[in-house]
Amino acid sequence: MMNGVVNPTLTGTVRQPSRLLFYGVVMVSGFAGLGYQMLWTKMLAVALGHEILAVLAVVAAFFVGLSLGAFVFSERLRRSTNPAAWYIGMELVIALWALLMMAILPDFNSWIAHWIGAEPSHWRHWSIAFFSSLLLLLPATLAMGATLPAMERLCVARYHARESVAVLYANNTAGAVLGTLLTTFLLIPWLGHSHTVILLAIANMFCATTTLLWYRQSVSPAEAPRSEHQYRLTHRHLLLVLFLTGFLGIGYEILMVRLLSQVLENTVYTFASVLAVYLLGVTIGAAVYHHRQGALKPGDDHWNIWLTRLLLCIGLSMLTGIAALYASERIYPAITQTGNAILGELVVAASVFLLPTFFMGALFSHLVQRAAIRTGLGIALGVNTLGAALAPFCVGVLLLPALGAKPVLGLLLSAYLLCLPSARNALKYIPVIIMAAALLWWAPPLRFISIAADSKVLQYRDGVMAAVAVVEDSNGHRHLKVNNHFTMGGTATRFSDHRQSHLPLLLHGAPRSALYLGLGTGISFEAARFYPGLETTGVDLIPETLDMMPWFGVNPEAMNWEPKPRLLAADARRFVLADQQQYDVIIGEIFHPSRDGAGSLYTLEQFAAIRERLTSEGIFAQWLPLFQLDLETLQTIIRTFMQVYPDAQLHLGHFSLQQPILCLVGAKRNLRFDANWLVNRVFDPTLQQELVRERLNSDLALFGGYLAGAETLHAYVGDGPINSDDHPVVTYSAPHFVYSDPAPPAHRLQQLLDQLQPTAQSLLHTTSNNREFSEQLQHYWQARNLFLQAGIDVKPNDTISNLVTQTREPLLKALSISPQFEPAYRALMGSAQAMYEVDRYQSYQLLSDLIHTAPERKEAAQLRYRLFGN
Q1: From CA 611, how far away is CA 59, in angstroms rounded?
Q2: In this predicted model, what pLDDT tens digit does every residue of 103-115 receive, in sequence order?
Q3: Where are the domains of the chain?
Q4: What's the chain's Rg over C-alpha atoms?
Q5: 5-39: per-residue pLDDT in tens?
Q6: Under CATH, which number does the domain 494-758 receive?
Q7: What does each C-alpha distance from 407 to 402, 535, 599, 710 come to in angstroms?
Q8: Is the CB of residue 644 less than 8 Å from the CB of residue 611?
Q9: CA 621, CA 639: separation in Å to the nearest integer?
Q10: Class for domain 15-222, per CATH?
Q11: What's the predicted TM-score (pTM) here?
Q12: Of 97, 286, 380, 690, which alpha carbon lies 20 to 30 A from 832's?
């Protein structure tokens, strides 16, 4: 016995494995474990939802399973004479259960979504999400929780000392780093979910087979620890410190990830980069501790000194991480300007996490080294993981919304005082805590809102899902910003937002019910109130956005809106699966495709689930932001959509070149229309006035944005990948758009117009009544394309003379093709009036040309008479 460590007696024939090979097995096991965690969290979110309660319930269930595994098998492993058999069995259980879950999950997701229901209480939602995922994952997580203790027993048998714990932990966590990066950046984009699970199961089998072939030996059971040293850190206090450090470490991660979401891009790669840096810091800390622990002298005094030093270093490094967070608003843009946004995210994450997690990894190794001697590694891991399981809910759901970021950081820093080995030590460092608290008190708010100097923040809220702000610019326009990066519309885009409601509702013709998936400011949703008797339901993932609607003039309770709409804070995927009602119109609002989780709203399964919610005459409209999409991702979404709606149509929402939006329309029936569509369907005077304001008061205006029907779209998208839950192509391809320097959206729109040639036959019924209207539509579409092409190369800040010179002939040509093309006529009228102050001769000539080109219109003649008297 040495330093309280009993050397187990080795018996039997020992075939000594290579140390590097053994550490490789430990690393591969960590790689598979983290890969599973990331995969299962995403796969379960389909039915449990992306609401923060559900997401954290799944994370907690995973951690609780690990904790239970460590507890349950701790004593068995300590007393086992054949830990290799236990370890091999655990790896095989993980692999087999992971493979079995591939068959279980589809039915589980369908069943659990209905059990949760469309409008569950918070308690019901969390309880079902937690206990169902806990039970579903338990066979695998129990085994995962016991793998590191089993490895430690094997290592003790091989190397005769428990100094191996730190190096095992370092290697296991290094594997987790690789699991994070390879799973996110390579395996899932390349193989999809199912094949990645198979690969991870093969990794488990590799660990089991390698151990079976290389480690054939038996060991005596571990004896009760004895030591010549008196432990002043009691057994109970040691476990308390392990519990608290697990809670505080994950709590710091949860809080800082939420704050970084206001700086970084929030793609699937963002979270992977941040998590990889966090784990890398822990890995390095554990590895350095392993190499330096020879300097740790025997005895409690020296051990307690190191414990105190590490706790203080964590506190100070957390302060440096907070300082780096304040600087990240400057660091990240500076690096992204070099063209490598992912590098910028890694650098910012490293500045915030690397130093604190380095000391956290060293502290954990320091604690668990002692705990492994006294209680067994399994108990130590179980207690630490249990603390980690509670942190996401306590910090992310309870403390952050209630107190704000700075006070919660102060609490986390102060809580490390409880981990000091004695009350005397804690009192000694009270001045340091007071100084840290003062720094936090005087520091600026941890709110990151990028606004112009002449703009102001009207409302800000740190919610459970996101940080939400209402910003007013110098023109008095209000905008909704979510996590600083995502502008979810505003009063300046009311024209466009209302059209996102009107187009699908008018295409249906006589809707009685409508479902909106995504609300944002609520302005699009508000347009539904102009349709008499329309029953509306609106669903948005972020609860805080519902409270912000009155800032944008949307208050269903105060407005003349009958029947009153139903507003829900819920995940669109889960709601569509759980809801039993059917709707005449379902509108998928504009989702930011690059945002982590948004890609699941464009999957084959989501489109099919929405189809089940449509009435027999219902239509589904999915809006797409061309200004945030590359054409390859757009083709993937259209191709996926047409698997469910083979007779799909594509419409242009408006004629903006800065922010073009597209509308994919599908139905259970073939979509065909007739002339006089609006005249025969719109009778309400209030709605008629609204359509005049929105410039949708004619059939030509309504169908003027039509881009392509099914045949043209099939030819455009061709063969290629389908975006599905199992192969989430959009989730992993869309972020490349925000990480690159794309061409202006007008150029993508131009490419789209060049490749899509609409035909009236694919839009209208083939009847004699529609022949004249078909010709008018064809001319209107030609004029539209000329109009858009004319504006592509125009510089917004150019002089009025240059603008008129560039656009005059194309717009007059467009008008000559289709005299009813209102946008060209209106633009030329505006140019003539603006030119009057600069060049009256050119103004007169432009008005004269306009009168000659469209003689049936009287506005140009009236303006010329008012300006020039003839």
Answers
A1: 31
A2: 999 889 889 988 9
A3: 15-222, 234-375+404-442, 494-758, 793-868
A4: 32
A5: 333 333 333 344 477 888 899 999 999 999 999 99
A6: 3.40.50.150
A7: 10, 44, 34, 56
A8: yes
A9: 15
A10: mainly alpha
A11: 0.91
A12: 690
